[in-house]
Amino acid sequence: GENVEQHPSTLSVQEGDSAVIKCTYSDSASNYFPWYKQELGKRPQLIIDIRSNVGEKKDQRIAVTLNKTAKHFSLHITETQPEDSAVYFCAASTREYGNKLVFGAGTILRVKS
Amino acid sequence: DSGVTQTPKHLITATGQRVTLRCSPRSGDLSVYWYQQSLDQGLQFLIHYYNGEERAKGNILERFSAQQFPDLHSELNLSSLELGDSALYFCASSVDLELNTEAFFGQGTRLTVV
């Protein structure tokens, strides 16, 4: 079935620097790739998503890029702030064995002030 | 507030027992997904229901079962509980089947098996 790999597992950056998290997926039919942010003890919340007909999407300090040929997508956060500290999950939709959203293992982002 | 309601928020129970977790999706959402998040773990997909029908299964144990009712709320039943079942259980809902739109998560039910 669909496998989503996410790297790195932890990432520490200085406030104001950029952070990049990368994911790869296995199902070539996947066409929807959301990114979720989860703060400690809270629910995951969508921060940005991209569909397969688009190569890049940006929303203020957050951007996502998608390379369908290589089957990988990345989250870019610029000008990081302490409140960006959280766990970030990438995900990919798949229709293998039914419709589901498969998540990567998560990246703990720490922004040091 | 995502509009997805999960009850209870916390549940403590003994090994061998059975519990039921409840999820009410956002108004108008037909899809409900259940995920398990163990300590320091990612979101493990359990099962997906769409408009009352099971549409996908993940690594869900045989001791676990779920259903979606005509009013679209869903229940996840966990039986013969083991210590390792302690986790945060999330449900999420979305409007469609094709997974092209945002899935909204509830606040989760924290299950502790003692």
Q: Strands, helices and their partners?
A:
The complex is a heterodimer of chains A (113) and B (114).
Chain A: E1 4-7, E2 10-14, E3 19-25, E4 32-38, E5 45-51, E6 56-59, E7 62-67, E8 72-77, E9 86-94, E10 100-103, E11 107-112
Chain B: E1 5-7, E2 10-13, E3 19-24, E4 31-37, E5 44-50, E6 53-57, E7 64-68, E8 74-78, E9 87-94, E10 104-105, E11 109-113
Parallel strand pairs in B: 2-11
Antiparallel strand pairs in B: 1-3, 3-8, 4-5, 4-9, 5-6, 7-8, 9-10, 9-11
Largest interface: A-B, 23 and 28 residues
SS-derived structural category of chain A: mainly beta
Q: Can you count the helices of chain B?
A: 0
Portion of residues in beta strands of chain B equals over 45%
As residue ranges, the low-confidence spans of chain B are none
**Average residue-wise pLDDT of chain B:** 93
Mind telling me the C-alpha Rg of chain B? 13 Å
User: What is the H/E order of chain A?
Assistant: EEEEEEEEEEE
Helix tally of chain A equals 0
Number of strands of chain B: 11
Order of helices and strands of chain B, N to C? EEEEEEEEEEE
Number of strands of chain A: 11
The termini of chain A sit apart by 41 Å
Average pLDDT taken over every residue of chain A? 93
Tell me the quaternary state: heterodimer
The main sheet of chain A comes to:
6 strands, mixed
What gap, in angstroms, lies between the N and C termini of chain B? 31 Å
